[in-house]
Specification:
Layout: H1 7-17, H2 20-35, E1 38-39, H3 47-51, E2 59-63, H4 88-101, H5 112-115, E3 119-123, E4 128-129, H6 141-155, E5 160-164, H7 166-169, E6 181-185, H8 202-212
Length: 220
């Protein structure tokens, strides 16, 4: 599984791959995929890293779990496979983008185009058993993805972190706030979106930061 990760990440994450917790995690995940239907497909588990190299990374968005229904998860947080109906949170993300940037809501919910522009779409847990939300939590993925956030904070400068909801906001402690920009907002799910997600304007704010740094802005 870990041989399928982009070389730029392999280099800085290799120490994690050698640790006992990660070896236990790989054994668990391999067993789950062998005995149950799990998402995303094994080749897409590290899609967030493979579409966004460490060198190109400009923005980090943190999610919690992959979608657990058929043909949704593609290894990128909030993203769904081509042709799939937009889940509620993604609908609200697109509504905010439309209002913020005055552009049409896209037909595709596949966010690979963001990742290819330098947006790391990182779920805290990278796998899930079909139709069992949270089934792969507390097995080691969170240790690994926390380390990813720390490494990004250490290795990079001027990254924009978009933290939506209490869970994502809990990751602030892993980020050097003197080196990076952090924007927080309520989660875009229908439960929290009306408490400040709409009108947060994270997408234009992110592009303003990138523009000021003379970096190419994101085509949301």
């Amino acid at each position: 599984m870990i041989t399928a990760i982009n070389d730029s990440w392999q280099y800085i994450l290799q120490p994690e791959f050698e640790k006992p917790y990660f070896k236990d995690l790989v054994s668990f995940v391999d067993s789950e995929y062998e005995n149950y239907e799990c998402f995303p497909k094994q080749e897409a588990v590290f899609a967030a890293f493979n579409f966004c190299s460490l060198e190109d990374l400009k923005v980090v968005i943190i999610g919690q779990d992959p979608y657990h229904d058929e043909n949704q998860a593609n290894g990128l947080c909030f993203s769904v496979k081509e042709g799939m109906k937009h889940p509620p949170s993604l609908k609200n993300i697109f509504k905010e983008i439309s209002a913020d940037l005055n552009q049409e809501i896209p037909k595709s919910g596949n966010l690979e185009k963001w990742a290819k522009q330098g947006v790391l779409l990182l779920n805290a847990t990278l796998t899930v058993r079909a139709h069992e939300a949270g089934s792969h939590q507390k097995k080691g993925w969170e240790i690994f993805t926390d380390e990813v956030i720390k490494k990004v904070s250490e290795e990079k400068e001027n990254v924009v972190f978009l933290l939506w909801g209490k869970f994502a906001e809990s990751k602030i402690k892993l980020i050097n706030i003197d080196k990076h920009t952090i924007f927080t907002a309520p989660h875009p799910s229908p439960l929290g979106a009306w408490r400040g997600w709409f009108g947060s304007r994270h997408f234009s704010k992110t592009n303003n930061i990138l523009q000021n740094l003379q970096k190419i802005t994101i085509k949301w």
